[in-house]
Design goal:
The complex is a heterodimer of chains A (696) and B (303). With 696 residues, chain A is an alpha+beta fold. Among the domains of chain A are: 2-83 and 665-695, no CATH class; 88-223 and 626-662, 3-Layer(aba) Sandwich (Rossmann fold), CATH 3.40.50.410; 327-517, Rossmann fold (3-Layer(aba) Sandwich). Chain A has an 8-stranded mixed sheet. Mean pLDDT of chain A is 82; it is low at 42-51, 82-87, 555-567 and 643-654. Chain B has 2 domains: 10-30 and 88-302, Rossmann fold, CATH 3.40.50.410; 40-86, no CATH class. Chain B is of the alpha/beta class and 303 residues long. In chain B, the strands form 3 sheets. In chain B, strands 5-4-3-6-7-10 form a 6-stranded mixed sheet, sandwiched between helices. Chain B has a two-stranded antiparallel sheet with strand order 1-2. The longest helix of chain B is centred in the last third of the chain and has 25 residues, at 247-271. Chain B has helices at 15-21, 68-74, 109-126, 151-160, 170-177, 196-208, 221-225, 247-271, 285-302; strands at 40-56, 78-86, 89-95, 130-136, 140-147, 185-190, 212-219, 232-236, 242-245, 275-280. The chains are: A alpha+beta (696), B alpha/beta (303). Chain A binds chain B through residues 27-28, 30-46, 443-448, 456, 464, 485, 487-490, and chain B through 1-2, 4-5, 15-16, 18-19, 22, 99-100, 102, 109, 191, 193, 220, 223, 228, 230-239, 241-246, 249-250, 253-254, 257-258, 261. Strand 2 (31-34) of chain A pairs parallel with strand 8 of chain B, so a sheet runs across the interface.
Chain lengths: 696, 303
């Protein structure tokens, strides 16, 4: 029997501790601080009889607990089992094969497959092996198997993916396999082009001691080739003759040391070539190419920007989906009484006239003229300084909110909410209150709410600079949430969910009569965010990156035409493969976007039958082909500086002491035994104390 | 959540509390000396809607105040005089002895007292009263004289105070009497670990000088309920004295003594026209404060 840490045996002298405890007074040593002992009567603490061991059983329990604890720390192991393990030379081999898209360069992938096959062929009959295919994620085939055929088949069937190199997940997975292995020799073979960008993720990963990592560097002798990539696209929108047009600008980068002349850059929209521009690209530089404007239709248009194919074709195309600028329809209802109606709406309508993403389609009416048909096609209604509509229009407004519409109630001189009006408000408002002097300001703002989130960062606008000279005190209902308060504590903006809709109550006006908010720079984003929140607006995503996950059922994920409702889906990948989508029960429908190109999401319940299109591009971090020294990575993971290959004898010796102790893990059982003894000690000592107390 | 104020110490001004007590007024029960118009009764005659008395017309009096009805009856000129309203000095006497730092749960008595003092100071400022603060342990530690512009200074002082030394009442209250020459409102915030008669003897000079004195007695729930189980040594935070105690044998007697202490304080304060309120730090602050101010306002109306 041996010990990995025999110095801990010195702790045996700690066995004297329970004896000392028994011998001295058992008075609690911790002192409780109390404000004043003015009322506390002094009671002398009862001393126990001491200097005589009365509870031998308790003493034995304590000694045993400490002894087992000390033994656990010494990490004991049996040498007989170690000898048996060393003479068995079976290996646990993990082959890590990089399939990031940079492996598609020239013949790198074929070379990598050959190297993996060679390793599989070299396995001894007792060896077990695992193949891990990795890019930014890692995927293991059959784990720790002796089936050579399935391993070779897995390597042969694998293909280059669209992901980027990340060593971390793969090495972590390999480490987990090694941890669970009971074979004496652990070996990893890492087959990769060793791009520098992937190394950072491996920091913190550490193989068990004694593991041998053998790197196989694919394309080691190659000079860094010239590589042109399309780094991204920008959209410039404009309206021309009532139609929306978009101008696409593509960013190109050249990571080679030589300039490239006569490079053809092509824009394709909906599988049709729109324009080709020939340009020159400087060495190790980048530039932007502007294409002519394209007129958009009513549905999202997929497109791609391509450059001439080079050694790494994957990053030569950039896919995207251009959505027509979304429009939020707003109905502004004024009171129609007095002279100030136009002025009341002036700031609000002017603010909503600005903006393209989204744009606001604003119609104004008065509360007397409002009819139920005015609500058709509207997403948000603003009751600007007026009462709610009567009769059928009032009922239609309540139904509109219940069905998911947004309602903003702006307080003003003419605001009122009769008792017979629908119960929509978040709170009850009172007659106007004046703030003398410099007026009030917003004292509390909930910056976590979507309305105010835009102001949360530094230098993002300060809503508290606006001065409020008059507002209506609001008493919020229990179900309402107060998003902003004035500096006297009264609610300024209150929110309530009514059915599927949202109602916001603004306690002051949105013109310049009761406050100067309309004259502040924050007015425009504030009004826009309020309307966007009420309309439940989310900006569309023009493209995703490989490795991201698309949730079809999430209403806030907008793809193409602004969202895909949960339904029966058929998803076609860029390589025209059908991807099964699980829509059963309450489970969300997730798609792993692993391929570069355009995914089509066919919705069986869609009225128009048009598929939604999702553009997916590769992460351009992989375009940087600079490499890292494989020995450096191996040292980082194995913790040994210098050669990663060791003779089999030295590996076996390294395994003898610490690895065998790890496999036997006796310390674990000793620790459990110590814990059990401590629990028993607690129970027994408590019982003894209680008995002693009751006897007194 | 964003910090709504920027002044250090302004975090103790709780909007929830202010919203609760916002409809009430903190009115002095006595007449007080002020400088400008306010909510409190002044010892002088002046301009208000409350009629006080008639006085014979003297050359130089404004003829707008001549009571023409009286002239019609008596054929003599009399002018009408009115009560004067004024603002008041609102001062906090804050006990920062070490025992105030005790907290069995989340909030210490010191912090609770800070909230009380900050909210009432802010509240007094809103009704145009002049605010100040005096902190003491076994002597006066800091003093901010009452002023209409001293809200920020009071809040800074509240932010800076540190309960670190033992406390007493006799000497600091005696010295504090010198500060309150002008009649106003004085609020004592303390845990009142002293003989009730000693405390009242210290407060009497303040009351006799015409000040409206209020006492907020702040205690932690552990000081009231004594919820400890295990026998252990207790250490007095102020004196450092240790004492072995078996709480379960002492609890009932301890609670009785504390209740008697509170009752005695309440009775003695009542006898000396001093308003007394007890605050348990486990209770919401706005609730107790609202109750106290509401009762006080109701009593003012009766008088």
């Amino acid at each position: 029997m041996g010990f990995l840490a025999p110095l801990f045996l010195i702790g045996v002298v700690g066995l004297a501790v329970p004896i000392i405890i028994h011998m001295i007074q058992r008075e609690r040593k911790e002192v409780l601080e109390f404000p004043s002992l003015m009322f506390v009567r002094k009671i002398p603490f009862h001393s126990f009889r001491r200097q005589r061991i009365r509870h031998w059983f308790l003493l034995l329990l304590r000694c045993a607990a400490l002894l087992f604890l000390i033994l656990a720390f010494t990490r004991p192991f049996f040498r007989a089992a170690a000898l048996a393990a060393v003479t068995d030379g079976a290996r646990e081999v993990v082959i890590l094969l990089d399939r990031s898209y940079s492996m598609g360069l020239n013949d790198r992938w074929v070379t990598a497959q050959d190297a993996a096959t060679d390793v599989i062929d070299g396995l001894a009959p007792d060896d077990r092996a695992t193949v891990i295919l990795f890019d930014n994620g890692a995927e293991a085939g059959a784990r720790s198997t002796i089936d050579r055929t399935s391993l070779a088949g897995l390597v042969a069937d694998a293909d280059v993916g669209s992901g980027v190199t990340r060593f971390g997940p793969a090495l972590q997975l390999a480490g987990g396999i090694f941890e669970g292995s009971d074979l004496p020799r652990l070996e990893a073979v890492l087959i990769s082009d060793f791009q520098r960008a992937g190394v950072e993720s491996a920091s913190g990963v550490r193989f068990p001691d004694g593991t041998v990592l053998t790197p196989i560097h694919i394309g080691a002798g190659d000079a860094t080739p010239a590589n042109v990539s399309v780094a991204g696209v920008l959209f410039e929108r404009e309206y021309f003759s009532g139609r929306e047009r978009v101008q696409v600008a593509a960013r190109l980068t050249n990571r080679g040391g030589a300039p490239i002349d006569g490079l053809d850059v092509t824009l394709e929209m909906e599988d049709r070539e729109v324009e080709t521009i020939t340009t020159d690209l400087p060495a190790n530089g980048s530039m932007t190419v502007d294409f002519a404007a394209v007129t958009l239709g009513d549905v999202p248009m997929p497109g791609v920007v391509r450059v001439d194919s080079d050694v790494l074709p994957t990053d030569d195309a950039f896919y995207f989906v251009v959505s027509p600028g979304q429009v939020i329809t707003v109905l502004v209802v004024g009171s129609g009484r007095g002279l100030g109606d136009a002025e009341t709406n002036l700031f609000l309508t002017r603010a909503l006239a600005i903006g393209t993403a989204p744009a606001f389609d604003v119609r104004t009416t008065t509360v007397e003229q409002m009819t139920p048909s005015d609500l058709t096609g509207r997403q948000v209604v603003v009751l600007n300084d007026t009462r709610p509509p009567d009769g059928s229009a009032g009922r239609a407004l309540a139904d509109f909110v219940e069905a998911g519409g947004g309602l903003l109630v702006v307080s003003g001189e003419r605001s009122a909410w009769p008792l017979d009006a629908p119960d929509l408000l978040p709170g009850r408002f009172d007659s106007p209150a004046d703030r003398a002097g410099r007026g009030g300001s917003l004292g509390f703002v909930d910056y976590s709410h979507p309305v105010f989130e835009v102001f949360s960062g530094p230098r993002s606008g300060d809503v508290t600079t606006a001065r409020f000279f008059r507002y209506r005190p609001v008493e919020p209902f229990a179900e309402a949430a107060v998003l902003a308060r004035f500096d006297d504590g009264r609610p300024a903006l209150t929110e309530r969910r009514v059915g599927n809709g949202t109602v916001l109550l603004w306690a002051s006006s949105l013109d310049s009569f009761w406050n100067d908010l309309a004259k502040k720079a924050v007015y425009l984003p504030f009004v826009h965010r309020v309307i966007e929140h009420l309309a439940d607006y989310a900006s569309p995503t023009p493209w995703f990156l490989t490795g991201q996950v698309l949730n079809l059922a999430a209403t806030d994920v907008t793809v193409g035409d602004g969202g895909v409702a949960a339904a029966e889906y058929v998803v076609m990948s860029p390589t025209s493969a059908r991807i099964p989508v699980d829509v059963s029960g309450q489970r969300a429908s997730f798609i792993n976007l692993n391929e570069q190109g355009l995914y089509e999401v066919h919705d069986a319940n869609a009225v128009d039958g048009q598929p939604s299109v999702v553009a997916v591009n590769v992460d351009l971090a992989e375009s940087d082909l600079s490499t890292v020294d494989p020995e450096e990575l191996a040292s980082m993971v194995t913790g040994r500086v210098g050669g990663t290959r060791e003779t089999e004898a030295s590996v076996a010796r390294a395994l003898a002491a610490d690895d065998l102790e790890r496999r036997q893990s006796l310390w674990w059982y000793l620790l459990i035994a110590a814990a059990l003894f401590f629990v028993a000690e607690t129970v027994v000592s408590n019982r003894l104390s209680r008995t002693a107390l009751s006897a007194e | 959540m964003a910090e709504p104020f920027t002044t250090p110490g302004a975090r103790f001004v709780d909007p929830k509390v202010l919203a609760r007590i916002g409809n009430l007024k903190l009115l002095a029960r006595n007449v007080v000396d002020g400088f400008i118009n306010g909510l409190h009764k002044a010892p002088y005659l002046g301009v208000s809607v409350d009629f006080a008395e008639h006085r014979g017309y003297m050359p130089g009096d404004d003829i707008r105040f001549i009571d023409w009805r009286v002239f019609a009856r008596t054929d003599r000129f009399y002018v009408k005089q009115f009560e004067a309203d004024t603002n008041a000095n609102f001062s906090v006497l804050f006990d920062i002895s070490r025992s105030m730092s005790f907290a069995s749960k989340s909030i210490s008595k010191l912090d609770y007292g800070r909230y009380l003092a900050a909210c009432l100071t802010y509240f007094a400022t809103t009704q145009r009263d002049r605010v100040g603060i005096v902190t003491f342990d076994n002597d006066i530690v800091t003093r901010v004289p009452p002023s209409a512009k001293h809200l920020d200074v009071v809040l800074h002082t509240l932010d800076r105070i540190d309960a670190g030394r033992p406390g007493s009442f006799e000497k600091p209250l005696f010295r504090a009497t010198e500060f309150f020459k002008r009649r106003g409102i004085v609020l004592l915030v303390s845990d009142l670990y002293e003989d009730p008669q000693t405390i009242i003897d210290g407060l009497k000079p303040l009351s006799y000088a015409g000040n409206d004195v209020m006492v907020f007695h702040v205690l932690d729930p552990a000081e009231v309920d004594f919820p400890y189980d295990e026998a252990t040594s207790f250490q007095d935070l102020e004196t450092g004295r240790k004492m072995p105690v078996v709480p379960e044998k002492l609890r009932e007697q301890y609670r009785q003594l504390v209740q008697e202490h509170i009752d005695t304080l309440s009775r003695l304060c009542g006898e000396n026209r001093i308003d007394y309120a007890f605050f348990n730090t486990a209770q919401p602050l706005d609730h107790g404060l609202f109750k106290f101010l509401a009762i006080r306002e109701k009593l003012n109306r009766v008088r």
